[in-house]
Amino acid sequence: MPDSRATVSSDASQAVAVVLATTEASDLRCSAGTLLDRLTGQLATLPVRDVHVMARSSDIIHVPGGTHMIGTEGPKGLADDLRRVAKAARSSVGPVLVVAGDLVAHTEALAMLVEHPARDTCALVGGKDEPPGPTRPPVRIEGRSVVAAGTSFHEVGETNGTFRGALQVGVPDLAGFAETTETLAELAEAGGFGPMDGGEVPGLLLVGLVRSGVQVRAARLGRLHADRMTAQADADVAVPRLAEVDENEARLDAAVKSDDGFFATYAVSSWSRHLLKPIAGLGLTPNAVTGISVGLAALAAVWFSEGTRPGLIAGAVLLYLSFVLDCVDGQLARYTRTFSPLGAWLDATFDRVKEYAVYLGLAVGYAAGADVAGGGPDGIWALAVAAMILQMLRHMIDFSYAGARADASRVGAAWTRAAGSLGRTDSLSRAAAADDAWTGGGNPILWLSRTMEKASPTRWFKKIIVLPIGERMALIAVTAAFFNARVTFVALLVWGGIAALYVLFGRTGRSLSR
């Protein structure tokens, strides 16, 4: 069977697209010809090196740059589709994008997958306000990841999103993905998925990724559209509807984190998006914005070291502006898609440097005794050092837990593939285990955490109580401006201590549930 390739670029680091034109809906008409023509045309505008089109038909379908691959019908056809996807994954040196040929989507929606600088494993998902269906398999999203996925054969508890037929597999996950996909092909050939047709291949691949323990980033559509078609009437409505959304504005919206802290969400992100276009127009990079943020924090520390009321107020204002830019550098990186490992490292490192510089400035100013609110040494350095050590311990807990989860995921992926549990829906499957974890599985700590996620007030409480960086910067600025450094450090130690115990208690409970 010939391989269809529309060569777009010779850059081996770019994605390879596998278009699954295995449903008749791929031939539905639109202004660009067929939906398949429209989709391959969109891919030609994106950083995609090769486009492989897989179809099942006795007729050869011509697409820009080549012709399709011919397959068969029934379980053998489903298995054959999966094996060809596995073959593409094994031979690729860049990420692999898998997309349904009957998908009508904004180009920006596809760009969220292939243009993301992380080049990671991700799936295009819609919100919970749009009910799941045959062309919208259910998923459950936790944080920024898809933690459970379904098909007509695999159920998902506590559904809060839908999969829209496009996913990308990052290079580090390709080998495991190919192995999992071949396991799925064997199950399909044996009739293990019942009367599942080729149109469910994208959803089945997502199930395989999630159940094998791969971390799948949820690329949320927001205002953008992406839907699979089943009839000409659907396509006649869906294609013109795309023009109703300004893709550039949607890109601005997507640059702002949807799951940020309370202070960052309402005191910064509510207006900082308006800075992105002007900053991008000036040619500033995210790293340059990070540098300006560091400079403002250094000035804030200098003003704090004055120990006077005007100095404390000026330092508080500069600290707030520094935090604004600390948010903007990440937003700019997402808007311009110019992430880099160096930028991520600098951002994380300078967050600590800025915070500890501010501690130093506050302690120097208070020790000088110039503050009209009262000052002097009085053990201020012990408080400053204690606050610094507490923050270091909290960061250590965060990073060690993240590392442990990553290790557990790799072990779980190997176990799942070895056990061949990808096709089961009984209590031994990963899906059942994930649902058990979601509802608490008899663990009261985890049950309470999940329950709190369901209501907005308690969900915000969970975010605030852990004293994230936004809340810390606000706490420092307010207490310093209206009181003095001693109050600032005592507040950091009290709230930070509660946050550390909360996080340690919660993560211990989560670990015991696994």
Tag the structure with descriptive keywords.
514 residues, alpha/beta, Spore Coat Polysaccharide Biosynthesis Protein SpsA, Chain A, two-stranded antiparallel sheet, 19 helices, 55% helix, disordered N terminus
Overview in brief:
The chain has 514 residues and is α/β, with parallel strands linked by helices. It has 19 helices and 15 strands. The chain has a five-stranded mixed barrel with strand order 10-13-11-12-14. It has a two-stranded antiparallel sheet with strand order 2-3.
Question: How does this model look, in words?
Answer:
The structure is a single chain. The protein is of the alpha/beta class and 514 residues long. It has two domains: 15-255, Spore Coat Polysaccharide Biosynthesis Protein SpsA, Chain A; 262-512, Four Helix Bundle (Hemerythrin (Met), subunit A). It has 19 helices and 15 strands. It has helices at residues 35-44, 74-91, 107-114, 174-189, 201-211, 232-241, 247-255, 262-267, 269-272, 276-281, 286-304, 309-336, 341-367, 380-419, 430-439, 444-453, 456-465, 469-482, 485-512, and strands at 15-21, 29-30, 33-34, 48-55, 62-63, 66-67, 69-70, 96-100, 103-105, 122-126, 138-142, 145-149, 161-169, 216-220, 226-228. The strands form four sheets. Strands 10-13-11-12-14 form a five-stranded mixed β-barrel. Strand 2 (29-30) and strand 3 form a beta hairpin. Helix 18 runs antiparallel to helix 19. The longest helix has 40 residues, at 380-419. It is elongated and about 80 Å long. The model is unreliable at 1-10, 58-75, 415-420 and 424-441 (pLDDT under 50).
